[in-house]
Amino acid sequence: MTTGNGGTGRKTIVFAGGGHAHLYSLRRTRELRNQGFDVVLINPSRFLYYSGMAPGLLSRIYRPEEDRIDVKYLVEKGGGRFIKDRIKEINSDEQKVVLDSGESIHYDAMSMCLGSGVPNKDFAMSKDHLTPVKPVENMENLHWELRKLGNKDGHKPKVLVIGGGPAGCEMACNSLRVFEDHGIDGEVTLANANPVLLKSAPRRAQKKIEGFLRSRGVRVLLNSEVTKIEKDAAYTRDGTKIEFDLFILAVGIKPPDIFRKSGLRTGPDDGLWINEYLQSVTDPRIFGGGDSVAFQGEALTRLGVFAIRQGPVLFHNLQAFLKSEPMQEFKPQPVFLYILNLGNHEGLAIWGPLVWSGKSAWKLKDYIDVKFMKLFQYPEDEPGEVKAYFDRLSADDLADVGSGIRGYGALKAATGGTNVEGGGVAIPYPEKNGSSVVAVTIPGEGTIPAPQID
Ligand SMILES: Cc1cc2nc3c(=O)[nH]c(=O)nc-3n(C[C@H](O)[C@H](O)[C@H](O)COP(=O)(O)OP(=O)(O)OC[C@H]3O[C@@H](n4cnc5c(N)ncnc54)[C@H](O)[C@@H]3O)c2cc1C
To answer: Does residue 445 fall inside a structural domain?
Structure first.
């Protein structure tokens, strides 16, 4: 069955994926509705985890609720519809997307922001020990996995990070931090195929990060492409064996193959090919941003900063297209700021050729990230609006902690929840004033009282 506008004559804008490039529009769902459009968001979870804070989620500098945006709230608050599902196929001839559930959703205009994944087919056989850096909410599981390793029977746990880009370096630093914070005597190795870390960064940044990692005790292996993984050891091309208890895959990211499979033109790595208006060159009704697109046929650096800057252009162009008005061009900024979280309240900042590190870099990163999150975490127009919203939530809603976080067993650990007398788990929940605790029903773990948010 295809769901459309129910014969209202209103045009439907579909946001496919609740990614960073869509936040600007989702926050303005009411404006879109007032302009005469129906708004639908399709995302596998109610939450988007913000990547800038993800390494801090691993080391628990941030709690999960500080790092996530409730995209369901954003769209429903403005009168839009949230569908918790995954898009399987795009049928542009019939102007619809097909979901995993089998439902089809009609669009008059659609924006795609499906993010990216870490290609891991070569290492899939070791998935029990593997954590890819995408989706970024994997960092939450990883935090607990590292703590679980402990020093059982005097064993010194070994973590292997594969990949020496920004994400790999941040994983190494923040894994170390978890070991230190929990008194675990563990070892972190970083294996990188290239002769340098951060290969696209200025030489000074490459030297700084290598020096920093080595000084913190990370074993840095350069020119060390991992080509084979067995149950508890990896092998580099030259046959060097690296033992591990757990490995983190940070070997780069790539868009999903859904666009190619749906017959839309794509760039070389399957990203949706979009023009200067962020519009598909195959179907003018389809727009897109973030990691899953190829801007004018090429992938921009896959960073949230580009996705976020595409947000206002998508907001304008989706409406302009439907009203036959002029569209805006997206002009990627040639120089951008990237600050690595070094796990010890220091940062490494890279801004074009400028490089600096230390506490001031970390403070700047924290300031930017926290300020950004405030824009999207439960904005309230009327007093009490957020409380009223939470009062209506079902247990399923409350148990949804993100698509990358596995199973109910992990939920308690994942959210830092605590057992409640009589059964169940109390989960610290995000809201405006302080840290209230709400209750939730977890299958197999019992039921506890209704949400209480002051
Ligand atoms: C460890 C790490 C740290 C990083 N730090 C930074 C940083 O500090 N600064 C920075 O600028 N960038 C950073 N990045 C890069 C950043 O993660 C990405 O560039 C950014 O997430 C891209 O945003 P996006 O909206 O395209 O995708 P995402 O944020 O991944 O959003 C995609 C959304 O689409 C949903 N989705 C996926 N498939 C489907 C489907 N089939 N149907 C429906 N929905 C779907 C997903 O669930 C998700 O909600 C970091 C990356 C990593 C891995």
So the answer is: no
